[in-house]
Amino acid sequence: MAYTQTARWLHWLIAAGIVVQFVLAEFASRAAEAGRLLPQLALLANHKSVGMTLLLLAGLRLVWRFRHPPPAAAEDTTAWQLIAARATHWGFYFCMFLLPLSGWLMSSASAYSVSWFNQLELPDLVGPDETLKEQLQFIHESLAKGLIALAVLHVGAALKHALWDRDDILRRMLSWPAVAASLSVVVFGTYLLIPTATSPGAGSRAQADSAVVQTSPDRVSPQPTDIPSWQIDYADSYIQFTCQQAGAPFSGRWLDWQADIRFDDKQLANSSADVTIVTRAVSSNDDERDNTLRGVEFFDVEQFDTATFVSTDFKTQAEGFTTTGQLQIKTLRLPVEFSFSVTQTESVKVLTGVATIDRLAFNVGTGDWRDTTWVGQFVEVQVRVSAQP
Ligand code: HEM
Ligand code: HEM
């Protein structure tokens, strides 16, 4: 009796995938220590994609195992050997499921959604939660250590059977094509997944550089009009953004901004908007990402503490209105179109609108961050302004 070919292929491919996972995690942690955040992000994204593939393979493997029970142990196996072998095998299954699941939960809790190789967006299992994230991180790391301990015992036992006892335990799990394929997975997997994660895509970079146009950093303010400024209820208003990161969306808000909105749908020619955002006050549910956004490569908040949007050009459109204003981020001021609608009841007046911004045109994300494989080029900004009627 031996293992089925399917069981052997799954055994060796999953083993290879696990090796790739440890290599990617190690490179990611080295990138983090060196302060290279983009490679860290990219390596972890690949780590998550491979990990989710392994979760699927582990599911297939378990189903296969129930339908095709493993061969019986050799007759001279002692009771403790049998218990040790079974415990190791079930320990492996435990890790094969709980490592990816804890990783997926951890990513969800830290507001980094998971995508499968930038192709398939996976749902978040829980909402952002810093404490839960830290607990899951500890669980994930502990499981990874447990897996190493099991592998040492397991490989040691397999080698003992092959070299010392010279029985057929290893042979009945061996399949040379599967072992060769698995070695190729390790070699090509690390060869392909590490460089793509650490070097920026040349195409997107070249295209992006030509989009940068320097303009004057001077602030422009609209002429005062006789339309009264809206009395904004900031607690019920927001400026929010959504962008793609490693194939999955992430959102954030600016917690500190002020707006002078003088909009009247019957006096479009006289209407104006003047919005100032405190760049430092960005929050995307993850401290590390927020600090990156505040850094020189993104909003450079030490030098440019505000970003502004100023507009006097209002038009009606099929549904609601549109305004094309000047958005100023760092030293760049470019026209941006904002579409919105206004609803009014007796107690409140609400403006909701959306604009799509090309971050590369504004030089938000310089150097390697220009690569749009890992951080999307277009950012959708959603605005809600609630004011007294
Ligand atoms: C069999 C599959 C997996 C294995 C063997 C594995 C293994 C590891 C290892 C060894 C580390 C480094 C831990 C350390 O810093 O000491 C790690 C980190 C990490 N893994 Fe996994 N992992 C797997 C699946 C996943 C999946 C599916 C995800 C997410 C969907 C994931 C997300 C992460 C994250 C985000 C980190 C970094 C944690 C941190 O910030 O320290 N892992 N993983
Ligand atoms: C981290 C990588 C590995 C994992 C997760 C793993 C997991 C497992 C599991 C769960 C089984 C039980 C059979 C099944 O349900 O399919 C098994 C059997 C086996 N594994 Fe591994 N394995 C790994 C690496 C290795 C390596 C590197 C070797 C060889 C040096 C090896 C040799 C064997 C042998 C000989 C059996 C059959 C044992 C028996 O019939 O009692 N495994 N492995």
Write the layout of secondary structure elements.
Elements lengths: L4 H29 L3 H31 L11 H31 L5 E2 L3 E2 L8 H36 L10 H23 L3 H8 L28 E8 L2 E7 L2 E6 L9 E7 L3 E2 L3 H8 L11 E6 L2 E3 L4 E9 L2 E13 L4 E10 L19 E10 L2
Antiparallel strand pairs: 1-2, 3-4, 3-13, 4-7, 5-6, 6-8, 8-10, 9-10, 10-11, 11-12, 12-13
Helix pairs in contact: 1-2, 1-5, 2-3, 2-5, 3-4
The structure holds protoporphyrin IX containing FE (HEM) (2 copies).
One protoporphyrin IX containing FE binds next to helix 1, helix 2, helix 3 and helix 4.
Describe this entry's structure for a reader:
- This protein is an alpha+beta fold.
- The protein folds into two domains: 5-199, Up-down Bundle (Fumarate Reductase Cytochrome B subunit); 209-387, Lipid/polyisoprenoid-binding, YceI-like (Lipocalin), CATH 2.40.128.
- It contains seven helices and 13 strands.
- The strands form two sheets. Strands 3, 4, 5, 6, 7, 8, 9, 10, 11, 12 and 13 form an eleven-stranded antiparallel sheet that branches. A two-stranded antiparallel sheet has the order 1-2.
- A hairpin with a 2-residue loop joins strand 3 (238-245) and strand 4 (248-254).
- Helix 1 packs antiparallel against helix 2 (37-67), helix 1 packs parallel to helix 5 and helix 2 runs antiparallel to helix 5 (176-198).
- The chain is elongated.
- It starts with a helix and ends with a strand.
- Mean pLDDT is 90; it is low at 200-214.
- The site of one protoporphyrin IX containing FE has 18 residues, from helix 1, helix 3 and helix 4.
